[in-house]
Structures are given as structure tokens and as C-alpha cells.
Amino acid sequence: MSNPGSGEQTRAQFMAADGQELYGSWTRAVIDATVTDEFLTNFPEQVKGSKRKDRLADPKGIFSAERIKGQLSRAMQEVDTAEGITRELLMPSYDDIVTYTDAGYFGDRTKRSGAAQYERVFTHAHTGLQFGLGASAGFVFDSFLEAYIQADELGVLGIDNDMASKQAEIGRFMGPLWDNAFNLPPDDQDPLFIWRSIDLQKLAFIARSLTGNPSVVDCLVDLSNTGFGVLGGRTARVGDDQNLRMIWDKDLWRSARLGIMSERFTAAMPFDETTQTFSVLPQVTHYLQAAKERQNAEGLSLARDVSTSLKKFKQDFTIGCPIPQEIPITALTMGRAIQSVAEYHRD
């Protein structure tokens, strides 16, 4: 790998060539070393026994894709540390990494020791990988969520029947998003039964989409070529310039941060039930592309301006994220992990 001095190439050139090779090799090495058949066999028990956050403390927390992502990411970090993958593959290019990415903003920036440099590169790379795992599952989940919200609005979830009938009714409404093989045994004594059933179906849908639907990867690759990093934003404003308002509803916020201005939740990657394929809403592509153009206008297009640009640039954007280079393997890995958990609880 070449190691050009500051000013010899742009960030875009680095990420398209040396950066792609560097982070592509690193991502594949971490995934191959971590996600073995033995790991997937034991992984559901790891998720089940992982430390619960307050918002995941209820029984259906075991069906949380967020929890699965967190446990998978922790396992990857542990394997990386034990096998020295980051130290071997990334640290020799430390100067380039802190020049062309925002790795320098991780850890304690006042420290110049070798340990501090390693922490910056390690944390930045794994933050990007975790983002890729979560985004892959998140876009697919949004398609399930859109149908689920519609079912709720139409009263499908509130039908006054026994649990078996309720599960069958929601299954018919969700159509191809629902897999009867993952129906839980109905329990009329358990008021949380239907919600756990829906959450397990959510995992099953995400898993089979990420592992067996090529249109998902096509969409994710298209999105990664726009302003993927805008997804890090923590707030979203909707409305016209004269009447901006904050959206606190978490579902609407998921839409709004992708440029979807709607009074109801809309998935960025809608699922067509007839063809069983995903696509990207054109307005999302345009919104993220505009975000990327704004990013470049901040000065990141010139390597000599990087240090200034990063200080001006909003830190909720991911600068130099390694994941777009390896979206297919990242999405497949998240799908396999979710599949292992879904099948464990189905069986």
C-alpha cells in the first residue's frame, strides 16, 4: 500500500483505492475470525445472557436486533484484540488513517503514545463496522415496521380474539413479511405473547432478507454511495423553512432523518410483496446525495484542508467510514447472526 504525504491525494481518492483495500481486508479478517459455525451455534446463548440495558429488560428484549448487534460487535472486538488484527492490518497505515478519516477524533486526542494511537484506529474501525451491521438490519426492519404500524392503525393487533386467532390474523395481514414457521405457541395467559411473536417474526424477516434477498445488498450498496454518514444525526427537522418543528416520535424520526417528509412512518427501502424485492425511495437517494455534496463543500475534497474541515464538520457524520467497502459481507454477517437467534427461539 502506498503512503502518500499530506496533500498528495484527496480523501475520496484514498477511500476509493488504498482505503478500500485497507479496510476491506480488515473487515473480512475480523468477520472470518469471529463468525465461525461454532460461534453461531453458541451465539444465541450469548445474546440471551448478555447484560441487559433498561430498555431491553422486558422478556421480549431477547428478540432485539439492537441487542444482537451489540453482542456481535463486542465479540468482534474481543477476537480482534486477541488475534491482533487491527495492529497487524491497520496500524502500519496510521498516518494515512488519521489524515483521511476522522479516526483522530476517537479516544483522548491529547495523548500521543502508541497505545493512544492504537485506541483511535481500533475504536474508529469497530464503530464503522458496528454502524454497518446496524444499518443493514435497520433498513430491512423499517420495511417490516411500516407494515406493522399500518396493521396497528387498522386495528388488526387489537382484535378481540384468542391468541391463536390474533396471531393468525396479523400473519395474514403481514403476508410475505410473516413466516408461519416462526409462529410461537399461543399462550392466552401471557399478555406479552403477541408482541414477542411479532418481534420474533421481525428477526426472521430481517435474517432471510439479509441472507437470501440480493435486492437488499443492491439497495445497501446504492445507499453507501450517497451520503451514508448522515444517518448518524441525532435530531431531524421537518416542515418548510418558515415552520420548522422538531419530531420527537421515534418512528417518524427514523423517516425524517432520511429526508422523508411525511405525517406517517415511511420505510426508506420499501418491500414489494408481489416481487418480494426491496428498492430505495428516490427522495432518500437525493437527500443523502445532497448531504454528501454539502460534506464535500466543507473542504474535505482537498487533503491539505482536512484538518480544518474536520473541525468544522458535524461530528454526527461518519467521515472515512470503512464499511461501504464491504457492505455485502457485513449485511450477510448480521443476517446470519440474527438468523441463529431467531431459529434458537423458534425451536
Task: Please give a handful of descriptors for the protein shown.
347 residues; mainly alpha; two-stranded antiparallel ribbon; two-stranded antiparallel sheet; 14 helices; 4 strands; 59% helix; 2% strand; globular
Structure description:
- The protein has 347 residues and is mainly alpha-helical.
- 59% of the residues lie in helices and 2% in strands.
- It has a two-stranded antiparallel sheet with strand order 1-2. It has a two-stranded antiparallel sheet with strand order 3-4.
- Helix 9 packs antiparallel against helix 14.
- The N terminus is likely disordered.
Concise synopsis of the structure shown:
This protein is mainly alpha-helical and 347 residues long. Helices cover 59% and strands 2% of the residues.
